């Protein structure tokens, strides 16, 4: 079980690195002047590659988490309400990941509707979700 937990943590940390950095690329994309198509294309390429890579990291992170939960029974049974809250955060993270993919498509099609300030705030969401998930796992408040 400790090896499964180790790899789960490594893949989660790696996935979060992408969740932190991709919106930062969006901030830069939102600031690209209209007369800089090369800069825009370079940032779009970086964003596409990062999204693909972080999706590949998310799959084993989630699979290993399911293995810990259902295979080893971590968080099952009475007194494990924290796990339900953590799973809600995981669902929000998957939604955030999906939202990043949708936002990237908007940049690619030229239909982005948000400015760089919006993306700076959007970039803070995974930090808050990570804080909540870690606090629930470590403290197990309920």
Explained architecture:
The chain has helices at 2-30, 37-71, 81-109, 116-122, 125-139. The radius of gyration is 17 Å and the shape is elongated. Helix 1 runs parallel beside helix 3, helix 1 (2-30) packs antiparallel against helix 4 (116-122) and helix 2 packs antiparallel against helix 3. It contains 5 helices and no strands. With 142 residues, it is an all-alpha fold.
SSE layout and pairing:
Blueprint lengths: L1 H29 L6 H35 L9 H29 L6 H7 L2 H15 L3
Number of DSSP strand runs: 0
Helix/strand order, N-terminal first: HHHHH
Proportion of residues in β-strands: under 5%
Q: Give unreliable regions as ranges.
A: none
How far apart lie the N and C ends? Answer: 23 Å
Task: Sum up the structure in keywords.
mainly alpha, 142 residues
Could you give a short description of this structure?
Helix content is 81%, strand content 0%.
